[in-house]
Write a structure and sequence with these properties.
Blueprint (H helix, E strand, L loop, with lengths): L7 H8 L5 E7 L8 E7 L17 H14 L2 E7 L1 H7 L1 H14 L7 E5 L10 E4 L2 H4 L1 H24 L5 H4 L5 H10 L12 H13 L6
Parallel strand pairs: 1-4, 4-5
Antiparallel strand pairs: 1-2, 2-3
Helix pairs in contact: 2-6, 3-4, 8-9
Amino acid sequence: MATAATRALERGAARAGFVRVAGVDEVGRGCLAGPVMAGAVILEPGRHIPGLRDSKQLTARARERLCAAIQRDAAAWSVAALSAAEVDRLNIHRATLEAMRRAVLSLVPLPDLVLVDAFRIPGLWIPQRAVVGGDRRSASIAAASIVAKVLRDKEMQELDVADSRYGFARHKGYGTPAHLAALRQHGYSPAHRRSFRPASLFDVLDDDRSDGTHDPR
């Protein structure tokens, strides 16, 4: 298993005088359906949560265990989600940044420094630092990725209960072959991002136009 993220960046920020350091990360950026969601976490300096790492490097069971520990032991945590309709209205990049901004500003207490995985968040008056590979390097960013992933997965499972045609509980909205096949058969649902059209979906649509079946646009 990959090496756990550390608190080196957080400790360095503390030596520079920052008391509350938040990590921020997003999930769902590359999905065809469901919200884009961001997590923000301020870790409690005196409480160690072992095993924090990029959520993509963890099993679902490990993510759920760590999410519960983060929610119990962190100094503060929050999530913010923008719906598929908001993604369509803003575009995915702007929606991702807005979800991050909302997650940070929902923290109580507010942080005095924000560590962001890869990006800088516009419209945020709190000092921030973009950290390349942050979900692998920073424990607080890794914690944010875990909380956001677990809560988004739960939302996708709820969408699956409401509409089981697409298999949201299995693929969480990503463009798997099964998801593309369901789109070909059923068209878009209200949970789908109508502006998000990767090449693999264009292939599906091209096939539909050639054989006269339903075009999910």
